[in-house]
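Provenance

Sequences were taken from public entries as deposited. Structures were produced by running a predictor on each sequence independently, with no templates supplied. The record for Beta-xylosidase C-terminal Concanavalin A-like domain-containing protein from Hungatella hathewayi DSM 13479 is shown for reference.
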Amino acid sequence: SGHGDLIEDHQGNWWMVHLAVRTARRTMSHLGRETFLTSVTWKDGWPYVGGNKLETIEREGPLWAGQERVQLWSADFSSKNWEAPWLFLRERRDSLFKRGDGKLSLIPSVQADGTDIGSTFAAVRPLDFECIVETELRFCPEQTGDEAGLLIYLESKFHYRFCKKRLDDGVFLVLEKTAEDFKQTICFAPVRDGNIWLRIECDREQYHFYYALEGGPFTLAGTASTRFLSCEIAGKCFTGTVVGLYALAQKQTSAYAEAKSFSIGPVDAYK
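Predicted structure for Beta-xylosidase C-terminal Concanavalin A-like domain-containing protein:
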């Protein structure tokens, strides 16, 4: 932890606002740096933070308002305005997105190289290790390389793609992992036309990827370790992962994806 600022609230309590990480396994975290609030006491004119240079992730303190756990968040695609949680790579290119009428349309970006994911990517930041991300998507890829789906992204060479994709011999549900110069595809499942539901169930150590076709149950496509999307593995990276919707093509295409829904929340919100 570090980069702390001392503050005094209106009730006379002292705090340090600082950056720190919650570790998922050993010293690694795929959530990246977050903002923490740690209580401060004063002794002989000196501030004391925590105990013996350590502090627990959670503890009771003199907060003046109840802290509520973030519940299920669902995007409102009936509105043309982007909600506050959405994030984009570099600057948002509005020509690649269209919101309204209960859906988000995504125009595929043309892929520059094997790890590039383009600019058609709208993401949110997971607020906890254990959560679920889910979307209902309609996508009819027209030419080889057209793909759209969910993307867990740390940086350009470290990401997991879970998508509907056209290959030379048909349309498939594909789960692909990229970690620097290592690339692995762990699912090729043929899928038919129509809506598809994609779900990622996240915990400290694994991502579990599920899909469902219209009228059918969820099927496990595969799992992937959170280790390879941790900031410590990638290096020179501290902001952590984001997850969201994307669309990509090998060359210009007239295909586009329509997301009917997108939500993220704690596991118990989906039961």
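The longest strand covers residues 34-43.
The mean pLDDT is 92.
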